[in-house]
Design goal:
With 185 residues, the chain is α+β, with helices and mostly antiparallel strands. The protein has helices at residues 13-20, 88-101, 123-145, and strands at residues 45-46, 55-56, 72-75, 110-116, 152-158, 178-184. The chain has a four-stranded mixed β-sheet with strand order 3-6-4-5. Strands 1-2 form a two-stranded antiparallel sheet.
């Protein structure tokens, strides 16, 4: 089970910027060919010999670095019970998020907005509700702050990535959250 940062109740726009601003290059986590930065020296790996280990030009085994975890923040975004309607408290949190996303520090990036629920209800119900809540969050950011829809990707996680492990049918407010993840330019 993935470990997530603690849920932030009402972080400021500056705190959100600091959480979502990358400290290095973002990686998508997918395989592919990425061009090297101009002037970067690379050591090609030798092809493995019949089932052997890939070897770098230095003669040592080639080790792929684990991709860095993208910057993210968990936010408490309160919705009306069993609905995707934002509460006034949710709007205060999203106002800070909106200010952060339109700031020069984050304006060039795209973000995945993940809706999460607790374990109350069926998995299908929670998946649908979390999709609706993620979409409501994106619509609010688009309409109030002019964040381009192309910068926001929404996904409902339902109760599949709990922040706090609980048994089925257990209400847990810390699991009812929105996670915002910087997915790069």
């Amino acid at each position: 089970m993935p470990a997530f940062a603690q849920v932030q109740t009402h972080p400021s726009a500056d705190q959100i910027i600091n959480s979502l601003k990358p400290t290095g290059p973002l990686t998508s986590g997918t395989r592919g060919i990425r061009p090297a930065a101009p002037g970067a020296a690379t050591a090609p790996a030798a092809a493995p010999a019949s089932g052997g280990t890939a070897v770098a030009a230095s003669g040592k085994p080639a080790v792929a670095a684990a991709p860095a975890k993208p910057p993210s923040i968990n936010l408490v975004v309160q919705f009306e019970l069993g609905s995707a309607e934002l509460t006034p408290d949710a709007m205060r949190t999203l106002d800070e998020l909106g200010r952060a996303l339109i700031s020069p520090a984050l304006a060039a990036y795209r973000f995945r907005i993940e809706g999460h629920t607790d374990t109350v209800g069926t998995p299908e119900y929670n998946k649908n509700l979390s999709n609706l809540r993620a979409a409501a969050t994106a619509r609010y950011l688009e309409s109030k702050f002019g964040v381009a829809a192309s910068r926001l990707e929404t996904v409902g996680m339902g109760d599949t990535a709990l922040l706090v492990a609980t048994p089925p049918q257990t209400p847990e407010s810390r699991n009812r959250r929105v996670q915002v993840i910087n997915i790069g330019a």
